[in-house]
Amino acid sequence: MSEDRDLRLPAAAATALCRELPRAADLTAAMQLIEAQRQLLLGDGLLTVNHVLWPDAAGAPEAIELQRIWSSRPAEYPVAGRKRKTLTPWTRQLLLDSEIFIGEGQAALQQVFDDHRLILSMGLQSVLNVPLVRADGRCFATFNVLGTVAQWSVLDKLRIELLAALARPFVARHVEG
Fold first, then answer.
1. Across all residues in the chain, what is the average pLDDT?
2. Directed axis angle between helix 27-42 and helix 154-176, to 10°?
3. Which sign, positive or negative, has the C-alpha torsion 41, 29, 46, 166?
4. Half-sphere exposure of 109 toward its Cβ, with a 13 Å CA cutoff?
5. Separation between Cα atoms, residue 171 and residue 168, nearest integer Å
6. Which residues are paired to 46 by β-bridges?
7. Between 22 and 7, residue with greater pLDDT
8. How far apart are CA 5 and CA 11, in angstroms?
9. Pairing verdict, β 139-147 and 101-104
10. How is residue 75 annotated by DSSP?
11. How far is Cα 154 from Cα 144, in angstroms, rounded to an integer?
12. What is the pTM of this model?
């Protein structure tokens, strides 16, 4: 079978995601389990989840604030860290249009992220940002995976999307309080 049609998970990952994840008590427990499976499936990298803090004013926002609510590397990317994002092609695609963003290679990371020096110093070369979306289509959080590969495979992209989908209910419960 070709790579783009044959998504397989190791039995250990499937067992953890199907049997252990539903029993996770909170966001931290769920994300620790998801991060362990991300490492198993994708290798070294970084996983963060950001809550989108939409401005109160009606109409198109001039800037959007993101607050980190989970991080696999809290020394470099601490929980509760905030960043203000102005409207760029990245914010429009990911936050306003609720579409996945894929950035591959150093140039892509430098173009999109203010903290690209830190990202590159960690050996990370690619990102896949998955919008977590409410029923109304509005992005309420982002699931962000950075990897050491310069380009994601089709299967890696699908694995990340699957992990994001599994994280979504835990993130929603956490941000909705």
1. 92
2. 170
3. positive
4. 25
5. 5
6. 146
7. 22
8. 19
9. unpaired
10. T
11. 17
12. 0.93
